[in-house]
């Protein structure tokens, strides 16, 4: 019998090439002999012929999923994130616990092991740079070999694990996090805040990703949702989401270009919108370009000037780097409305001669000079997207700007020069993606009808062929969902398995594209070469995520294909992270409950002491002694720090305070409603009152009692 690792070839080829080699298995497509792998004879062909059994489903919304809970839309951004939900038939931004409409995508751990998320984490970044994680979206779903440059731009340590995956080191708690875990903590805060805002538990969401995210990054984003305890119903592209928000109630047909420059990524999409149909014609972008890169140019300029003057490299000082980064971002934002920004960084570092400071003025012209090559990089994706859509600039009706970085005047001027149109400013660039995600969430929840979304695959999907060439199977800008099948057979007698390498990208050679992983097909029944007929189906779903299935057409038996490397996290690791996230959530809830209980207990002590002082001699001595005894028990419980102890002590004190009030009304000559007798302690329920009061003339005045909460 031939080795189980052998070549296979497409059906319809007479003879085929047999092999007894034990090298890596290879295969090819019909009707010509196209072999995959590096170890085959050079007499084989190097081209590919597709079969015609491609099937495409037209609507990426898929079958409507009816769900009971509220479904929200989440824009999980590089620098800031936002949540929105359908309220009263319209998408509405959900404010967070701090009352803000966006939440910084920042997570930090203090030296005490406390976890901070959002604005509170961002505020302490300068004093805790090594344990504050920001711009994590740049690392999600990527291998360490892909993020060499990005890892140098952050103040925390980015390391490689034994599988080549990215890990983020947290010295404060002595742990390494996957990027998915940090993103999950941001998602958890967004969902918790949304649940409070909507007064309804949120467990389902639509999450947006850059249009140019590959399969690994999309899968990793879904993993982050799962770790956060969230069911991600759909992953949709950010420019597509923006178009949903823009065209939600528009009836006229328009061709629009969405220019999305976020904190860490850049996307361009061309769409036709109108009458409830949103069809993406093409998409292009750059996942290594965003507002952070503009900040970095200012940081490098400031650090370079300081090094020339003082001989000190601030980029090696993590605290100084964090201060420079925050200052650069502020300067960039100021230059959107001013022609120059004054930069002042006192005590940026110190030497034996004393403290050192930075005082500088950055003009808008200098800023544009520093970022000139970044501005040039914005042009190509715009031109590519229009070319792929087979349109010219004059065919565009509107240009929509998305992402906070589109507020940079030079970016707006570039868009105007390229397209010949003034950008549409009717949408908020910080919120429009979340609003569009909420519309899609409404579609999936059954709250929104008459919306049809036709999105496309951002990158081509293909296989490695002879000579390290990538052969494309599903080209980019193919409407999603889509599937493609190819029929294979064996090229050697008794062959029982085959392994292939699936790639995503646009370059000609394997080394320049992203490997999604190895697909190993096992369990092929031993048979003469060319006899087995194995149909392998590549399926890209509405989320843009790839799945693969294989069926032996002769026996009808479905073969198992295990995908390795498609996600940076194996399933058991995801399960561990889910369990750990639940544990953290429980701990966070307990900490919050402890803080709230302590605050309530302090308030009860203050209010009770105040009431006793105001009532003075009116309180019978035995009653006062009991209240003071319970009051002391509550103070002791507060000092002890037991949450349950404080709750029990408050309940006991409340009973005595109720008795105090009753004793005042029972005193001789006490009229109902007279005096300032205390009600229940703060935090307890007040019962309705039937008492009436005498008016000045002795008449009875009816009063309505209102229980205010």
Automatic annotation (TrEMBL):
Region described as Disordered: spans on this chain = 1-24, 663-709
Could you state one GO biological process linked to this protein?
A: response to heat
A single cellular component GO annotation: chloroplast stroma
Where in the cell does this protein reside?
Plastid, Chloroplast stroma
Which intervals of the chain form a coiled coil?
314-341
PROSITE patterns listed in its UniProt record: HSP70_1, HSP70_2, HSP70_3
- Residue spans of biased composition, Low complexity class: 682-695
Keywords in alphabetical order: ATP-binding, Chloroplast, Coiled coil, Nucleotide-binding, Plastid, Stress response
Q: What InterPro entries does the database record attribute to this sequence?
A: ATPase_NBD, Chaperone_DnaK, Heat_shock_70_CS, HSP70_C_sf, HSP70_peptide-bd_sf, Hsp_70_fam
Task: Cite the record's Acidic residues compositional bias ranges.
Answer: 699-709
Instruction: Provide the primary localization.
Output: plastid
Which family does the similarity line name? Belongs to the heat shock protein 70 family.
Q: What is this protein called?
A: Uncharacterized protein
Q: What is the originating organism of this protein?
A: Populus davidiana
